[in-house]
Design a protein that fits this description.
311 residues, alpha+beta, Ubiquitin-like (UB roll)
Length: 311
């Protein structure tokens, strides 16, 4: 009897939820996104949307468009005004974007690119993203009373180059240099030395990224680097899944335009094929359960499937 009651309640709840998806998609989405402003609730809200996407095998187009618009707005706000804890929001938001692609109709890739370029968010969402790098960064020393220094940035500058300049400027002893890292002042995110500055900071007139030279013990730095590596690989995986599903769900009469767009963008992009091939081999053996290794496997596999579809 109890099992029958639970089954009845489950069916009734599903019917009510489906009615909301059909008739009031914006109102339902607003219920989830109103909680985004609360730091302790924001991840749960996005995870609930993930569960919703998995639970229903068919999503009404109007609900899909509502989710896409809200999530895109959230990601653009993270680009304009990054904040502490934005990593999880970005990772969950990007996952929702590629999940919703099969249910969207009428999404024009060139129009989306123009919107993202205007907001300087191309690199966050598109695998073809290509935005000029910032020209310099400001670096604050370990002591707040020290005068900051500047580092000139080119398209090929690594964070290891910037870190070396900062260590020299602030006179850090050689025996302690391997314990210092660059951390973003706003987001508190550590920067992996082997990554490119241009992948994180784009050119904005009269606005220069602010970094801090921070001392960390071995345990803390390893934890921070592992977390950052997993975040970066998750976002790259989401970007290639977004491109793959966009291509696979493009109407037949528009598929040629879509393929041509990707071809042209890859030819012009200095990030291809570097972003598709990058791997953090040094961290494969240190992260428990091989999480980074498995993410990288998925990343490479989906790049393979995507490129096979193109060529």
């Amino acid at each position: 009897m109890e099992g029958f009651t639970l089954l009845f309640l489950s069916g009734a709840a599903r019917k009510v939820l489906w009615t909301c998806l059909l008739d009031e998609p914006t109102l339902l989405i607003r219920f989830f996104f109103e909680k985004i402003s609360h730091k302790e609730r924001r991840i749960k809200s996005l995870q609930s949307l993930h569960h919703l996407m998995i639970y229903f095998t068919d999503i009404p187009p109007q609900f899909a468009h509502a989710i896409f618009n809200y999530v895109l707005g959230l990601l653009l706000s993270m680009v304009r005004s990054p904040l502490d804890g934005s990593q999880e929001l970005i990772a969950n938001g990007l996952t929702l974007l590629w999940q919703i692609i099969p249910y969207l109709h009428g999404l024009v890739l060139k129009d989306l690119k123009q919107i993202l370029r205007k907001e300087q968010a191309e690199m966050l969402i598109l695998v073809t993203g290509n935005v000029p790098s910032t020209k310099k960064v400001i670096i604050h020393g370990p002591d707040a009373s020290q005068i900051p220094t500047q580092a000139i940035i080119s398209e090929e500058t690594l964070f290891s180059n910037v870190l070396q300049e900062a260590l020299d400027f602030f006179g850090i002893p050689n025996v302690k240099r391997d314990r210092y890292y660059l951390v973003d002042v706003k987001t508190k995110q550590i920067h992996i030395p082997d990554t490119y500055v241009r992948d994180f900071y784009f050119f904005r007139r009269n606005i220069h990224p602010q970094l801090s030279l921070v001392y960390m013990d071995i345990k803390q730095s390893r934890k921070e680097l592992e977390h950052m590596s997993i975040f970066l690989k998750t976002t790259e995986l989401s970007k290639v899944l977004f491109a793959r599903y966009l291509l696979e769900n493009t109407p037949f009469n528009q598929i040629h335009n879509c393929i041509t767009f990707f071809h042209d963008e890859f030819i012009k992009s200095p990030l291809f094929p570097r972003k598709a091939l990058e791997s953090d081999f040094n961290l494969y053996t240190t992260i428990h359960d091989k999480e980074l290794f498995h993410l990288d496997m998925l990343h490479k596999y989906n790049w393979y499937v995507f490129l096979i579809s193109l060529y």
